[in-house]
Specification:
Elements lengths: L5 E7 L6 H15 L4 E8 L5 H11 L3 E6 L4 H11 L4 E5 L10 H9 L5 E5 L6 E3 L2 H17 L11 E5 H7 L10 H11 L4 E5 L1 E3 L8 H21 L20 H27 L4 H24 L8 H26 L6 H27 L36 E5 L4 E6 L3
């Protein structure tokens, strides 16, 4: 029996309509177009309809398929339990609706089997992706991933695409650190992987939205926000410690802690805001409000960029200092637009000094948040190095030859039916071709 190279988990809950056609289509693709030994694991997590009966029948009919039953719901719970016990070299999963084109499966797992990468994800937000979905889901998806990059310092582009794979050895190290049982499991695993120094490979995918999706977007969004808060608190307190599974790439910039950066940026921002207000009041007695605002912002913006460059982002020396200042002045332009616009809107009412100062403080708070994001991801963050998709050629093999597909069978091809009470799982349909 050959080594099982890829175990593809398909989590399902009350999917009696889509399960059979999707699994048959996936099994056909693996038989005809996939060069590695593979198995499909249907993970039924708490279905109350005919899903489990259909999964059991598919496991009996198709040698590439096995079925696993879990009494409690939760995609994260199912993936953690099955991946923890799988003997495959690469552990993958995809949504049952097969929204992602199956031609992306080979580029997804090939870098992991070759040892080039540790974890691979499909991304719908890359330039080469072709996505069909409504504007509501598009806005929510992009907003969520922007939050991850801003608040968690994430560098991957799409946390929610249901098309991922991870090497077994890396999964065994990270899965015990995960806690989420639901949809946030994907994000949690990716954030932990980045913290552990793993290499994440991204591939653009062709993706078509499932119009019959029953995912509660609001409930899922709230659960994701709670998960992000839990991770952030765990990292800040030191209660969540992630082992360094791979050494940093030579020449790569050290990872900056978001909480520490935000704290230093806040202190510098408060000092610069005070200096700005003092300058504004001094200049206001001799020039107009707009002129006083421009001069005060310009002086403090140069000082702010220099201080954050050295103290917040740890960059010393003269190298690229001029470029950083130019970019800092562009960020300063955002603050100028906000404050000048606020003053212009206030002018017809002929406000006093107190009203001007109040409006300027509010506008500066907004400008400060925007400036921090620009500093972190553009001014001092440098260009984002995204891994480009690679085309992986299938290994040569004789025409018509097909690798064996291990399915955990016992001699004679008798179906294996068992129960693992500790994980509340029952397996069925593991057998040889």
């Amino acid at each position: 029996m050959r080594v099982l190279q890829v175990d593809i988990v398909v989590p399902v809950r009350n999917e009696e309509r889509d399960l059979a056609p999707s699994v048959r289509r996936l099994a056909g693709y693996l038989r005809d177009s996939f060069p590695f030994t593979a198995r499909i694991t249907i993970a039924d997590n708490g279905s109350t309809d005919a899903t489990w009966a259909i999964a059991s029948r598919l496991a009996r009919e198709l040698p590439e398929v096995r079925a696993v039953r879990m009494e409690l719901p939760g995609r994260g719970r199912a993936l953690r339990a099955i991946w923890s016990q799988s003997e495959a070299e690469v552990l993958a999963y995809m949504d049952v609706d097969l929204s992602t084109d199956l031609n992306a499966l080979l580029p997804l797992v090939a870098p992991l089997l070759s040892g080039h990468s540790d974890l691979a994800i499909g991304t719908r937000l890359a330039r080469g992706s072709r996505v069909v979905r409504g504007p509501k889901r598009e806005i929510i998806s992009r907003g969520y991933n922007l939050l991850l990059r801003t608040l968690m310092g994430a560098r991957f582009s799409d946390a929610q695409c249901g098309f991922k794979a991870i090497r077994r050895d890396q999964a065994r190290a990270l899965l015990p650190l995960t806690q989420d049982h639901g949809w946030f499991f994907d994000t949690e695993l990716l954030v932990l992987a980045e913290r552990a120094g793993l290499r994440i490979h991204e591939i653009p995918v062709d993706w078509i939205d499932d119009l019959d999706s029953r995912v509660d977007i609001l409930a899922t969004a709230l659960a994701d926000l709670r998960g992000m808060a839990r991770l952030g608190i765990g990292f800040a307190r030191g209660s969540l410690r992630v082992p360094q599974l791979r050494a940093p790439t030579p020449g790569a910039a050290p990872r900056q802690d978001l909480a520490l950066q935000a704290a230093r940026f806040t202190v510098i921002g408060v000092a610069c805001t005070i200096a700005y207000l003092v300058l504004f009041l001094l200049l206001r007695s001799i020039v107009s409000a707009q002129a006083a605002n421009l001069i005060s912002l310009l002086v403090t913006a140069v000082a702010n960029t220099a201080a954050n460059r050295r103290l917040t982002f740890g960059i010393s020396g003269r190298s690229n200092a001029a470029r950083h200042q130019v970019k800092g002045l562009i960020a300063f332009g955002v603050g100028l637009a906000l404050t000048s616009g606020s003053l212009a809107a206030l002018a017809p009412a002929h406000p006093g000094r107190l009203a001007e100062i109040t409006v300027l403080i509010a506008a500066n708070l907004v400008a400060t948040v925007v400036r921090f994001l620009l500093y972190r991801h553009w001014v001092f963050g440098g260009p984002r190095r995204r891994k480009r998709a690679r085309k992986w050629a299938a290994p040569d093999r004789p025409t018509g030859a097909r690798p064996d597909r291990p399915t955990g069978a016992r001699p004679g091809g008798t179906p294996l039916i068992g129960t693992a009470h500790g994980n509340e799982m029952a397996t069925q349909g593991e057998r040889t071709n």
